[in-house]
Fold this sequence. Notes:
Distance between the termini: 53 Å
Pfam family, one: VanW
Protein name: von Willebrand factor A
Helix content: 25-40%
Shape: elongated
Radius of gyration: 31 Å
InterPro entries: Glycopeptide_resist_protein, Vancomycin_resist_VanW
Amino acid sequence: MTKRHNILTGQLLCMAGILFLTLAVAEADLAVPSTKERWSMPYFSFGVKNVAAAEDAFLVRVAHRLSARIARRVGTSPPISVLVTALQEQRTLLTRHTTVTLQIPGNQSYRTWDVHLQKYPTWMKAEISPASAHFRVDEERIAQFLTTEPMDGIIQPQQAVITAVTKEDDVERVVTSTGAARPGIIFDMSVAPRAIAAALTEGTETVAIPLVITSGPVENLSGVPLGDLVLLGSGKSDFKGSPSARIYNVRKAIHEHVNNVLVPPGAEFSFNETLGGPVSNGNGWKDAKVIFNTTELRMAPGGGICQASTTVFRAILQSGFGYERRANHSMYVSYYEKYGVGIDATVFPGKQDLTFVNDTANYLLFQAYTEGSEVTVQIYGTPDGRTSEVIGPFFSSSDFTDYPAEERTPRGNEIAWVQRITFADGREKKRVITSRYTSLPRSLAKKYETAVHASAEQKAM
């Protein structure tokens, strides 16, 4: 028998399967004949055994119709008994369902998904030969569904396409035909289709499937050699509860000034230079609260810009870079607690800046965006083998097991973190980052005293 024969008969059996679903499943989970069909079989009386017999008779009729279609199309057909068995297999598969628990790092019950083959009948595939016919759950069809159909909780990564490189004053930027690159949450296609198919085939009621958090790709069509532009690290912060003017300034700083900035190899990045001029109402900044003279809060243009500089600072640390100039806020600001309490960076043009040096041999690219009340800053570049851990937070009452023994521990109004950079050649560089405030909430240290010291970067979407 030729391969073409097998393909055609397989297609016909699949068509018959859909016909079977149309005729039978619409009325019940199993292929129970309709009232009209039962009256067309007067030699059966009503009862459990006879209903089962009616079901079998119904399958036989479907098998005969299927056999005739296969014979007309390819000249031969498997025996009726074989086709009936195949349809019974299909009917059994249609009763199978499983609850899929989708997991991401840090969240073992990210989403649940109720899967049953009555909802996804095309996941079944017929396998035909002149003497045999079977239905099975097909991994390839599940894989096609997972990669093409939108699903709750699955987020496709967003690509950034660079079309040009520009320079204004001392700041280089890229021009993109899309928005900033954004990460996605997708299925691990080496695991998910196989796991779902196995659960449905074996009748397993639950199955856990890990999802993959993947970075948004960056494509360079500018013609300017910028290196590989792979995600090196990212920082996050949350401005939930901010007044409208502050929110406006945060978004303006991120979207108009941080996003798309390029840092040439060997160059120093200056946050203040990205602002493109004085922070004034005339330059589009709104009045919001700003700290003056250590403890004084005043309305001034640009209040909230430090949310952007703080997030940039976190991205710098996570990407494996040190810093040249940085200062924390004099007052503890609750907007900066999430994703790295104590890792903040205040800026004030002409007085205080946030700077670091690109000590790699290739360009670095900032991709930054806001989503809801959260800010994300990502740094792309060419990997050189270094890794970075940012460990903390440490308070005066913390366990200092992971803290460098030669360094001073934080005082009661301080929060410390430890950055540990490991280079490709095995060299290791440690730096303690200490933030000193006028005071700290009494409950803050207690809140973190049982926390396991870990990287400040959080992958939650």
